[in-house]
């Protein structure tokens, strides 16, 4: 391919003499050369624009010009071909004309003005100035030029000698180039010597060139050629030694091109000459780079039939005139026409205009025509010209109507679909589809359109031709194409089309803009989904519809939907509002446009076929009704509140069934509710919403009951829930009648209300801490109605939950039952045991249903049993069984609901009424029964995480004593029991009297407490519910009481895996427990320490710090010295002064040795790797691998500061990875650790004993102080007269001044940030040291946050300097950028921005989210992925070795971050051990990768040095680069 090159030949003939010849003592002494210029040379005359320097009319010098520009020719602004000259923009008197003196259009001896490229010069073209400028010693010529054939560009001639000559020519190698030649004359021998500089080849495009002559002193001249005006783009800069150069006086002739032949061929856009050294570049912009006889940016050649001088400017004809109706013209501009085909000169007006500025810029119109925006129209456009206000905007998905202003349905607006006397030509409304058009149905509106308009519609085409048309002017096809008929300026018509690709049977948002431009060009731009498609452009025309036209939607063959239509009388900037009008994707929901044909409906997920009988479509599956409300027979729209006529037994808007009626699903009819419902949502019993008189509505079940269950209150005809718990009985008292705590329902033991100590045969037996014991033969308890106990009755609702604590001893029995005595003793409900499996029997409707649990209860063990009964929403009663909180699957009891009505019934505990007798007796213990009116949380009733080894326990964790009736609980374990006296029928302790009262003086008691006595034995008196001996009382009874142990509450000592202890009291304590009344003792007396921490009133934690070995199952005892200080809130005494437990095996020695070994090895490996990298970095030109190693070690090291539960082994390994800083901490000798606050737990684990930043990271501050102290010495040594020392320390000072502190902040960023964050955790300021610490920490952390922001701003602001690697900038800030490929762009300079952000997030995550280890792991992984992404996708490092090593390291760090997640879950110790070994191994890989990169760079450097030495040895000659400066000395 041929290069289009620019050549600049500057030939200067100068006269010289030796410096002393004309100048002595800096003064010009020669009478001929007496004008001193710039104290450098002597000249015979001042150059142009210079002024004479005169003193008393004696002129002996020249002043430098204030306005040095000689001329400036702006060829791009001259488009008149009839002119004979072009004037300089500096001086109108400076006229440049061709030698023939004729106009441009007549002769090729003149250059030719063009419409867009300045002047075109043929090889015979030239222009010459009528001014005779004298060039100066400081000379510049600047030009925008596009040459493509050789020849002269500029010459300056005096007396037939060219002093300045600018040519486009070949160089010695045959390349098109710029050449600058000087013909210099030496005053000593009068010989002329030709001096020449040549530029490298240049691109043949528009380019800005500059040349300069610069007289530096009396013997030196610089000649320079610039491209694009900046020194960095300098092409050639040659130095010549001249002596007193000057231009002789005379009338210089300035010529552009060359007369006759020999001119360059090409375009000249602009040129200037100046008597100074200004070559500032200005941007030309986008100009055509076409050769002659071509037009437009695409460089289209004019037709062969067209003239070549001047050439055409468009494709339609050969004319050069702006107006197409212009026959002849003087130039390219609009007002240069000299003869028109039609219209008025000089613009050739539109045929409807009576005056104009140009064809399409009318200023007046013919009679009856309307002027709009310079266009004459047939009629005034309707509506608003404001493009933001459409003249039509219609949503067809709204009400049925005959008028959609201004559109009407076919011929009459008063008749339309539906139910409004529709005509056959009326379109059909379709739900969420707007209007459905079939052939010959349409909407119409009379309208006068503007010459520019926009239209948008949502259309669902099925088939047919036209969707929208206005006469024969506009046709929008169903396939999305549009045809528009335009009108030319002479009144003839021309049609144009634009296409869209849209789909049938699918919604499309299509829109079109017809736009007119003022230069006579119109465009049709189609849009699909508000995005423009390829526009159609039509020249010399305008859309101009005739008056009285009409707009039609629909046509003779169109099938489809239109849901939305908008029309504007202007082009609008965006159709996005119309695109988003429905605010959702069609077919995505019921509220969006339906993607369904007319005979389908949308069910929320897909289009379904309507019934065959539906002639007008449908909106649902089961009917042809078109109204949204299926009870509506006629409506005005598809919306809910638009009904005109409702079905029978329905009214309102929307239509609703009248009170007492409900709609049959899928049918437009209202039927009567269930018999007890006064209102309902369905026909079934559970669909009531209110009840008839005499019944009460239960909202939780939607049923009507004849009475409200217990726990509800009656309010008019409704049962309102008052309380969840309706029955709560604890069998822990000693009484024949127990009242439940919820509703005071009396529960009677046996047949009468007598009880202990005179048990009846059918009484259960009171069992201390175990409730009541039922013997399985006759023991029973009764609820009202029984004898005189009538109210309150236990009536359970249809939704309930029953909870029972029990310990069974027989397999088949009844626990709790209610029997209808008046109805054949039928069961209402019963909880029974069948082969130890619990079952619930319920009366539902007229039959009893039994639901059995899947698992049996364990005999002779405490169990928790619960049944949940509720309705499932379909009218079915369902039951769920819980055994020890474990649920069975839900079982269906049957259709109907359970109702426990007030009737003559027997409610029994421990047995069941069978006919007239009681049977099915329960044997075992019952401790507690609760009944709820709600689905109560089972976890609040029982627990399986117990303080002792029982199957189930109270939610506090205490187990019920597992002792038989002939035993009593001795403790402390829940199953430690002793036998009662053989004569006892149950007992509390070992007393022979078998008394269960606190005191043996008590005859009867209400409970087991000290103050529970009711009556006393003989010779004893009752005082404050306590029995006291009379004077003649037998003290044996008293002695029996005092000698007996009476533990009314107990404590359990628990041991955890790490051998920490806890004390768990069965009841809350009156006062907080003190450590000084407790002694902790361990078998074999190992060395240990312990603390007492209160968690709550029943739970105390005892952290243990054991320093010696502990054998497996070693006994640990907790002894209470003073039991009087350990009493419950019920003033109960602790059952024992000593509790014991067994410890786990513990051997601290092996772990400690492993941890120490790991820490030592980690330190050794890290220090070896760092020292090795430092050593290699001194030998390498690039120490980046050292920085990479230190950065990786920091990231890994600070992991141990997080809340992740690392083992001691892992924590020690990680924290010792940061052991490479060996610089001493000056502040350790000045600050006492005690003055600060103790660091929090994780910081202590990492190695921070305090929150003082100057102690934790003082070595970094010490480095800064040391560098500041050394700075004056380095400055002093930098000025040392001994060159070697001075040079070394001067370089050291430069690095210390800039690079050192930048690199220091980069490497200490994470360290100082972590230490500052630790110092901000507690924020205590009790003394001056703490206040100073807080201030320093805030300052450091502020710098931490500011660094990424400042770095990003700094990098963006200086991005061009960074990309060009400017020397001065690089000297200051290259530490940030020297490692990276910054020349590729801004993003490659941001490595340290990612670096800062990653470490800032890491610091905040490690310290402030310590309590959320899962969140910490997640953020750590995200940060690693961010760095990996940046390294993979941008590859910022210049050095491939560094890129690979850093990428490997980041990937390995990411793997470690993922591996730490295993610590958050319960996994085996072997897995954790494997994970830790993997982390250590991967850490070694990271250090190895970074160290290997140092070694690789070192070896590569050695190889390059050796190779360079060999190369120099083999090459004898040194070649100069073509762009390097060359120096020529005149002899």
TrEMBL record:
This is TNFR-Cys domain-containing protein. It comes from the Eukaryota. It comes from Blepharisma stoltei. Residues 1-17 form the signal peptide. The chain crosses the membrane at residues 1261-1279, 1300-1321, 1327-1354, 1390-1409, 1415-1434, 1446-1465, 1477-1499. Keywords: Membrane, Signal, Transmembrane, Transmembrane helix. SUPFAM superfamilies: Concanavalin A-like lectins/glucanases (SSF49899), Growth factor receptor domain (SSF57184). Residues 959-1002 form the TNFR-Cys domain. InterPro entries: ConA-like_dom_sf, Furin_repeat, Giardia_VSA, Growth_fac_rcpt_cys_sf, TNFR/NGFR_Cys_rich_reg.
């Amino acid at each position: 391919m041929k290069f289009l090159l620019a050549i600049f030949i500057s030939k200067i003939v100068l006269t010289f003499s030796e410096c002393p010849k004309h100048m002595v003592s800096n003064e010009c002494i020669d009478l001929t050369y007496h004008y001193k210029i710039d104290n450098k040379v002597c000249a015979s005359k001042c150059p142009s624009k210079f002024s004479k320097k005169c003193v008393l009319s004696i002129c002996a010098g020249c002043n430098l010009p204030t306005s040095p520009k000689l001329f400036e020719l702006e060829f791009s602004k001259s488009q008149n071909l009839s002119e004979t000259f072009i004037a300089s923009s500096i001086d109108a008197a400076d006229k440049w004309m061709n030698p023939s003196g004729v106009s441009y259009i007549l002769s090729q001896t003149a250059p030719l003005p063009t419409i867009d490229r300045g002047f075109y010069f043929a090889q015979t073209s030239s222009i010459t100035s009528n001014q005779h400028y004298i060039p100066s010693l400081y000379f510049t010529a600047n030009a925008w030029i596009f040459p493509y054939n050789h020849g002269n560009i500029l010459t300056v001639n005096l007396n037939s000698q060219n002093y300045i000559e600018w040519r486009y020519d070949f160089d010695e190698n045959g390349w098109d180039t710029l050449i600058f030649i000087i013909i210099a004359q030496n005053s000593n021998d009068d010989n002329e010597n030709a001096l020449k500089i040549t530029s490298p080849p240049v691109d043949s495009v528009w380019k800005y060139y500059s040349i300069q002559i610069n007289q530096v002193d009396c013997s030196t001249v610089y000649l320079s050629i610039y491209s694009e005006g900046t020194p960095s783009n300098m092409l050639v800069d040659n130095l010549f030694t001249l002596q007193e150069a000057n231009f002789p006086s005379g009338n210089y002739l300035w010529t552009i091109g060359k007369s006759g032949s020999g001119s360059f061929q090409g375009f000249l856009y602009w040129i200037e000459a100046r008597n100074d050294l200004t070559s500032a570049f200005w941007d030309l912009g986008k100009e055509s780079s076409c050769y002659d006889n071509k037009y437009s940016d695409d460089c289209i050649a004019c037709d062969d039939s067209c003239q070549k001088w001047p050439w055409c400017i468009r494709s339609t004809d050969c004319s050069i005139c702006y107006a197409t109706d212009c026959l002849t013209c003087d130039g390219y501009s609009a007002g240069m026409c000299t003869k028109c085909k039609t219209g008025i000169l000089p613009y050739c007006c539109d045929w409807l205009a009576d005056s104009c500025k140009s064809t399409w810029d009318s200023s007046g119109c013919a009679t009856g025509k309307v002027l709009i925006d310079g266009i004459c129209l047939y009629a005034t456009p309707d509506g608003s010209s404001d493009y933001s206000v459409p003249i039509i905007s219609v949503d067809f998905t709204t009400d049925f109507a005959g008028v959609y202003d201004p559109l009407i349905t076919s011929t009459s607006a008063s008749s339309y679909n539906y139910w409004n006397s529709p005509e056959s030509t009326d379109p059909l409304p379709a739900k969420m589809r707007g209007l459905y058009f079939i052939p010959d149905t349409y909407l119409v509106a009379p309208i006068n359109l503007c010459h520019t308009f926009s239209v948008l519609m949502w259309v669902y085409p099925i088939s047919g031709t036209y969707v929208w048309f206005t006469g024969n002017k506009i046709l929008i096809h169903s396939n999305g194409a549009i045809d528009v008929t335009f009108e030319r300026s002479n009144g003839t018509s021309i049609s144009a089309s634009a296409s869209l690709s849209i789909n049938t049977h699918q919604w499309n948002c299509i829109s079109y803009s017809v736009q007119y431009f003022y230069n006579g060009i119109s465009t049709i731009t189609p849009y699909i989904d508000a995005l423009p498609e390829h526009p159609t452009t039509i020249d010399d025309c305008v859309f101009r519809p005739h008056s009285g036209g009409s707009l039609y939607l629909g046509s003779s063959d169109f099938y489809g939907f239109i849901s939305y239509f908008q029309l504007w009388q202007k082009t609008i900037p965006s159709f996005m509002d119309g695109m988003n009008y429905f605010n959702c994707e069609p077919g995505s929901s019921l509220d969006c446009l339906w993607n369904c044909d007319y005979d389908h409906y949308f069910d929320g997920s897909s289009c379904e076929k309507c019934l065959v009988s539906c002639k007008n479509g449908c909106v649902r599956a089961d009917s042809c009704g078109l109204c949204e409300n299926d009870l509506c027979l006629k409506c005005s729209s598809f919306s809910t509140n638009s009904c005109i006529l409702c079905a029978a037994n329905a009214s309102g808007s929307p239509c609703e069934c009248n009170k007492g009626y409900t709609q049959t699903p899928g049918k437009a009819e209202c039927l009567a509710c269930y018999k007890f419902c006064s209102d309902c949502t369905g026909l079934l019993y559970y669909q009531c919403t209110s009840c008839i008189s005499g019944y009460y509505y239960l909202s939780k079940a939607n049923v009507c009951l004849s009475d409200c269950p217990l726990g509800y209150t009656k309010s008019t005809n409704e049962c309102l829930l008052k309380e969840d718990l309706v029955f709560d009985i604890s069998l822990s008292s000693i009484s024949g009648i127990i009242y439940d705590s919820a509703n005071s329902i009396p529960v009677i033991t046996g047949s009468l209300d007598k009880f202990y100590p005179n048990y009846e045969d059918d009484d259960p037996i009171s069992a201390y801490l175990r409730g009541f014991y039922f013997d399985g033969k006759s023991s029973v308890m009764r609820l009202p109605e029984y004898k005189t106990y009538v109210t309150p009755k236990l009536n359970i609702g249809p939704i309930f939950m029953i909870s029972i604590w029990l310990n069974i001893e027989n397999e088949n029995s009844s626990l709790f039952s209610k029997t209808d005595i008046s109805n054949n003793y039928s069961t209402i409900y019963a909880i029974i045991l069948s082969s130890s499996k619990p079952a619930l029997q319920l009366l539902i409707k007229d039959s009893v249903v039994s639901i059995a649990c899947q698992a049996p209860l364990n005999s002779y063990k405490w169990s928790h049993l619960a049944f949940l009964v509720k309705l499932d929403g379909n009218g079915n009663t369902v039951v769920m069984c819980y055994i020890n909180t474990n649920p069975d699957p839900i079982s269906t009891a049957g259709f109907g609901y359970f109702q426990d009505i007030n009737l003559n019934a027997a409610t029994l505990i421990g047995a069941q009424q069978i006919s007239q007798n009681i049977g099915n007796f329960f044997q075992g213990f019952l401790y507690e029964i609760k009944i709820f009116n709600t689905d109560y949380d089972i976890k609040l009733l029982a627990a399986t995480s117990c303080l002792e080894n029982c199957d189930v326990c109270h939610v506090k964790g205490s187990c019920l004593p597992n002792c038989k009736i002939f035993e009593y609980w001795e403790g402390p374990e829940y199953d430690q029991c002793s036998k009662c006296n053989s004569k006892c029928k149950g007992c509390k302790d070992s007393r022979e009297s078998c008394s269960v009262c606190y005191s043996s003086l008590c005859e009867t008691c209400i409970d087991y407490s000290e103050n529970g006595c009711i009556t006393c034995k003989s010779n004893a008196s009752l005082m404050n519910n306590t029995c006291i001996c009379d004077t003649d009382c037998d003290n044996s009874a008293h002695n029996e009481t005092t000698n007996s142990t009476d533990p009314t509450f107990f404590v359990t000592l628990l041991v955890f895996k790490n051998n920490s202890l806890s004390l768990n009291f069965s009841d809350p304590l009156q006062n907080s427990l003190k450590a000084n009344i407790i002694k902790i003792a361990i078998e074999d007396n190992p060395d240990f320490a312990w603390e007492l921490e209160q968690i709550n009133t029943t739970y105390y934690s005892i952290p243990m710090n054991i320093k010696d070995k502990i054998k497996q199952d070693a006994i640990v005892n907790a002894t209470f010295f003073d039991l009087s200080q350990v009493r419950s809130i019920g003033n109960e005494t602790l059952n024992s002064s000593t509790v014991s437990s067994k410890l786990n095996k513990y051997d601290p020695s092996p772990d400690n040795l492993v941890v120490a070994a790991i820490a030592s090895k980690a330190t050794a490996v890290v220090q070896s790797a760092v020292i090795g990298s430092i050593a290699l970095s001194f030998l390498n030109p690039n120490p980046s691998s050292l920085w990479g190693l230190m950065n990786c070690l920091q990231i890994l090291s600070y992991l141990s500061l997080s809340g992740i539960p690392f083992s001691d082994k892992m924590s020690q390994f990680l924290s010792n990875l940061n052991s490479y800083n060996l610089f001493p901490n000056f502040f350790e000798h000045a600050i006492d650790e005690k003055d600060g606050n103790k660091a929090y737990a994780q910081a202590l684990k990492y190695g921070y004993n305090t929150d003082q930043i100057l102690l934790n990271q003082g070595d970094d501050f010490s480095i800064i102080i040391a560098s500041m102290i050394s700075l004056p010495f380095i400055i002093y040594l930098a000025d040392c007269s001994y060159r070697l020392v001075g040079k070394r320390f001067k370089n050291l000072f430069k690095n210390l001044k800039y690079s050192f502190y930048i690199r220091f902040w980069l490497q200490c960023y994470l360290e100082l940030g972590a230490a500052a964050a630790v110092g901000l955790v507690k924020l205590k300021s009790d003394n001056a040291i703490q206040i100073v610490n807080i201030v320093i920490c805030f300052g450091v952390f502020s710098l931490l946050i500011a660094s990424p922001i400042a770095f990003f701003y700094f990098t963006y602001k200086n991005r061009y300097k960074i990309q060009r690697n400017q020397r001065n900038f690089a000297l200051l800030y290259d530490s940030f950028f020297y490692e990276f490929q910054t020349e590729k762009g801004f993003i490659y300079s941001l490595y340290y921005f990612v670096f800062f952000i990653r470490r800032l997030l890491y610091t905040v995550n490690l310290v402030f989210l310590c309590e959320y280890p899962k969140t910490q792991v997640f953020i750590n992984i995200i940060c690693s992925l961010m760095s990996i992404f940046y390294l993979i996708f941008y590859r910022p490092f210049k050095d491939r070795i560094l890129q690979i090593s850093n990428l490997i390291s980041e990937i390995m760090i990411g793997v470690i971050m993922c591996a730490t997640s295993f610590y958050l879950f319960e996994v085996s110790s072997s897995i954790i051990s494997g994970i830790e070994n993997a982390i250590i191994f991967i850490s070694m890989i990271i250090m190895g990768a970074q160290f290997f990169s140092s070694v690789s760079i070192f070896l590569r450097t050695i190889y390059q040095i050796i190779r360079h030495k060999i190369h120099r040895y083999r090459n004898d000659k040194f070649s100069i680069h073509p762009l390097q400066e060359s120096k020529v000395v005149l002899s």
